Amino acid sequence: MSGKLSFSIQPIVHELNLILKECDSLGQLPAEVVVVRVQCSTLLNALQSFTTNVSEKEAINALRQYAKVVLDMTYIKENQLVEEEFPVHDGYERMQRILDMLKQPEQVVHQVLGPTACVIESLDAEMIECLYWRKGALCYMYCHTVWTNKSRVEKTKPQLIKCLEEGVAELQSMLAVRNPVASGDDVVSNSRETVKLLAQGIFSDTHVLALMYAGEMCYWHRQLIPSTNQSKSSKTTSNQSDASFNITQPSSQSNSSTGTTSNQSDAGKAQTISPSDVSTVKTSNQSETSTDVIGSHKDSACHIDQSETRNKTHSTASCSTQTSDIESDTFDSQALGMQFLQRYVEIVKGPLRASGWDYRKAEDMIKQLATK
Questions:
Q1: What is the pTM of this model?
Q2: How far is Cα 223 from Cα 334, in angstroms, rounded to an integer?
Q3: Distance CA 186, CA 233 (A)
């Protein structure tokens, strides 16, 4: 795209004004909302200083700052929704509004840069991964809350199934943003375990947790739709899975294991991930702010990767970021669930065996899925 082209930032201004209006509608603002409001107002003032269209570089910078505002605002709304345990009367609808808000940055990229713009290059791979993660994790938290209440499951079964499928699709997309990194791709690391994780497409704790969340949602889905007619054919489902779940299979599964018990993958420990560090997911014996699994901790928004691999890990389909709409008759939760959970177990019993991740629940779900 030529640097001589100019782009309208009006779609960004419009979305920021909507966020600002929502902040003002809250009346007496909590401190965290005040922070978001200041961020929003500051960015709006900066953008309104442009009297004409902006350059591509300026447009991309504005898009990334807008996306951070979206992440911060939705984080506040998610926390409130989780604390209220997704109220029966409006929890699902509020969750959908948050999901819609998290989808908006990708749409605004196309409105500003054009329909053929590469979203990952425009917003950055880390930001895209964070947006997908936040959508998938929110779906997981809603589904977990509902799943613990049998009467609520029966009353909301259709929307629960829909949410499970959407959550899995978002996490699949998150895991497919970047390609695995081969050991010869100028990887700088003193740890053999780190190299193994990179080769399997695992760039952070969050990638590991995404495997468990997706696997558990598939497990719940299988309980709700146990019949084999949920997939048109195993071949179709396999191809669909391979296209979006881009993680290299290891040559052999590690037989090593850890005796450390962790609550990290426990379904009862659903948690919201801070927008300032998408990797702040911890086991019971980890520090308050965990590092990513391939290197030192970064403080930038939604930082998931290490700079050495940034230019080498974009997916071959990196400009195609739309989450596919998976219908129940093509969603093979048994095959997908086993794939996610087996990969999770291989990783936490292999390269992450000393990190305190719990794998026993995942192994139990694998056994139950295999017998369905």
A1: 0.77
A2: 10
A3: 40
Both tokens of 137, joined, read: 């994790």
Instruction: Give the distance between the most distant pair of CA atoms in the chain.
Output: 64
Two structure tokens written together for 225: 């739709």
- Give me the residues paired with residue 7 across strands: 54
d(CA 339, CA 264): 19
pLDDT tens digits, one per residue of 145-162: 999 999 999 999 999 999
- Which of the 8 DSSP states describes residue 308? G
Quick one: tokens of 66?
A: 């807008």
Per residue in 263-293, pLDDT (tens digit) is 333 333 333 333 333 332 322 232 232 334 3
Distance CA 64, CA 123 (A): 5
Residue entry with tokens 């795209």? 1
Looking at residue 323, the DSSP 8-state letter turns out to be: P
| HSE-up (13 A, CA, CB side) for residue 14 | 10
Give the pair of three-digit tokens for residue 132: 């997908």
> Six-digit token pair at 307?
């700079």
Distance, in Å, from the CA atom of 40 to the CA atom of 20, rounded to the nearest integer, reads: 7
pLDDT at position 320 is 54
Tokens 């959407």 found at: 166
Distance of CA 149 to the CA centre of its chain: 25
**Residue 288 one-letter amino acid:** E
Give 1's contacts (C-beta < 8 A, 6+ positions apart).
56, 113, 117
Amino acid making up residue 110? H
Q: Rounded to an integer, what distance in angstroms lies between the CA atom of residue 179 and that of residue 205?
A: 16
